[in-house]
Write a structure and sequence with these properties.
Helices cover 74% and strands 0% of the residues. The chain is mostly helical. Bound molecules: protoporphyrin IX containing FE (HEM). Protoporphyrin IX containing FE binds next to helix 2, helix 5, helix 6, helix 7 and helix 8.
Length: 227
């Protein structure tokens, strides 16, 4: 059966990683672009954030399509982690003895970056949701439900948050770069002729998304975006 093969074979798991990763890349591109609306002022930004809750209206009621998107993202991230752990276990089984001296060069450097970076992004995501979506008091001292602009500005007036987000964005950039590159390999685009353009594409994604995201926290910190 197709689904069984997808979840049991190495290539199937890699396809799961690529597809679920692409879902998140799409979300990140959309989220980063949406965040840039912070430069258009409080009303515009809050209207946009409110619009997301009513996305698909009047056909869909408030939150319905948003929840569909949330469920797709949750299923995607869980499948991505499951396939990653499963592939790593299979790789370990294929080499029962540890390396006498493991040299973290090239491929293994990327693997290490992507594993620990992925774990860091997962924990960042929980922090981020607590910070801006759930409004946990211990993390966000002045959270006002429905006022995304206020929450964002107050959040990034604390330099520690800016530092934390910037570190997370470096992890996101490296993950996007290595992840996209290994996806191209899986899909068989490892033709010498295209190698440099594909690397360029992976690099562009790994740079543009984090840089776009970084503009909001830095602009708040340096006083360009205020309440
Ligand atoms: C500087 C970077 C970022 C900023 C300023 C930012 C800002 C925000 C804000 C303000 C919200 C709440 C929107 C609302 O409830 O109205 C939000 C939600 C969210 N963000 Fe971010 N974000 C950033 C980076 C990221 C990254 C890197 C990820 C993923 C790895 C991410 C994933 C999410 C998710 C999943 C939600 C919840 C959406 C929902 O279910 O309602 N964000 N973000």
């Amino acid at each position: 059966m197709a689904v069984m093969t997808l979840t049991r074979s190495t290539i199937g798991k890699k396809v799961i990683m690529a597809v679920t990763g692409a879902v998140w890349v799409g979300f990140l591109a959309f989220h980063m672009y949406g965040n840039l609306k912070v430069f258009q002022g409080a009303d515009y930004f809050n209207e946009y954030s409110e619009g997301l809750r009513h996305i698909g209206s009047p056909i869909f009621s408030a939150y319905h399509l948003l929840w569909v998107a949330r469920i797709v993202l949750i299923v995607a991230v869980l499948s991505h982690v499951w396939a990653a752990v499963s592939l790593a276990q299979a790789a370990r089984k294929a080499r029962p003895e540890q390396y006498a001296q493991k040299k973290n060069i090239h491929a293994s450097y990327a693997a290490v970056t992507i594993r620990y970076g992925g774990l860091a992004i997962f924990f960042f995501l929980l922090y981020h949701l607590a910070h801006f979506t759930w409004g946990v008091r211990a993390i966000h001292p002045d959270f006002i439900p429905g006022n995304a602009y206020h929450n964002l500005v107050i959040g990034f007036q604390n330099p520690l948050n800016v530092i934390l987000y910037l570190i997370a964005l470096v992890a996101v950039g490296l993950h996007l770069y290595h992840g996209t590159w290994s996806m191209f390999q899986t899909l068989g685009f490892n033709n010498q002729k295209y190698d440099s353009s594909l690397r360029g594409l992976a690099l562009a994604l790994g740079l543009l998304i984090p840089l776009g995201f970084a503009t909001a926290p830095l602009s708040v910190l340096f006083g360009f975006v205020t309440l």
